[in-house]
Design a protein that fits this description.
This protein is α/β, with parallel strands linked by helices. It is about 40% helix and about 25% strand. Helix 1 (about 45-60) crosses helix 2 and helix 5 (about 170-185) packs parallel to helix 6.
Length: about 280
């Protein structure tokens, strides 16, 4: 149901993300989630994304003219997948003349997982973080033992911060670096760690970090998490309020690495140059 908006309140945010196997989309405003869709049909993202947008606008009673901005997951993730949402978001932002906001898909996974853990533990944000820092490590499989990952923390004072850039890392090496940072900073300062995302292919390494961290008294949670549009929208709102918008004509996803075809082509070119 559409809510009455007081003067000066921000309008609704439309959010899209297709960087993962889940097409995540939502419309939120200051009252909460007005509409949300989560589809796991990865190969059909391009077929359904526009119809899902129309469906959410209709069910929420929101007109495109009422939107405050469009937020889109900018990756990293599936090379083909993330371009679908970005292309649609750029087009809508241009046609509807709305601000475009790019949001890290990894940060949205981390932010969403942290909120889910808090709800599952039936604690408020303040109760959850009291007494120490909470790390959230999002991961997506990137093949060959690699993951798309980054790192965030919620401080004792309630501040959400990033402390590692989005990138592709070998999971076993990433576990070593996290364990080193934990040891160097003093484990008592880190109350807990959540490893969130698709853990299917990387659970053994996640369990290894759990063993290393818990040996020094830091709780580690393995949190399977599928992307949700509401967290793209929430982070998009924060960036919009900070004036961090994108040019819809030049905005590109965060590819983070070359595609397999590009790697093969470059290797071939290098081989020919050596002859």
């Amino acid at each position: 149901m559409k809510t009455e908006r007081k003067h000066g309140q921000p309008g609704p945010i439309l959010a899209l993300d297709t960087a993962t196997a889940s097409m995540a989309a939502a419309i939120i405003d200051e009252s909460g989630v007005l509409a949300e869709i989560q589809s796991l049909a990865e190969r059909n993202h391009s077929v359904h994304v526009v119809s899902h947008v129309k469906e959410m606008l209709a069910s929420s009673g929101i007109k495109d003219s009422e939107l405050a901005a469009i937020a889109v997951g900018s990756g990293p993730g599936s090379y083909t997948g993330m371009r679908i949402a970005v292309a649609v978001a750029k087009t809508l932002a241009w046609v509807w003349e709305k601000p475009l906001v790019g949001v890290s898909s990894l940060e949205a996974i981390a932010y969403g997982a942290w909120h889910h853990v808090s709800l599952e533990e039936e604690k408020t944000a303040a109760e959850w973080i009291s007494g120490g820092e909470h790390w959230v490590i999002p991961i997506m499989d990137a093949r060959r033992g690699q993951v798309y990952t980054s790192a965030f923390s919620m401080s004792d004072g309630g501040e959400w911060t990033r402390w590692a850039d989005d990138g592709v890392r070998l999971m076993n090496g990433w576990v070593e670096k996290l364990a080193e940072r934990l040891s160097a900073g003093g484990s008592s300062a880190v109350r807990s760690i959540t490893i969130a995302g698709d853990l299917t292919l990387h659970e053994a390494e996640a369990q290894r970090l759990k063993a290393l961290a818990e040996a020094s008294g830091t709780t580690v949670r393995l949190q399977p998490f599928v992307q949700e549009g509401r967290w793209i929208a929430e982070l998009g709102r924060k960036k919009l309020e900070a004036g961090q918008t994108e040019n819809p004509h030049t905005f590109i996803p965060n590819y983070t690495q070359l595609t397999e075809a590009e790697v093969i082509w470059k290797a071939k070119q290098a081989g020919e140059a050596e002859r």
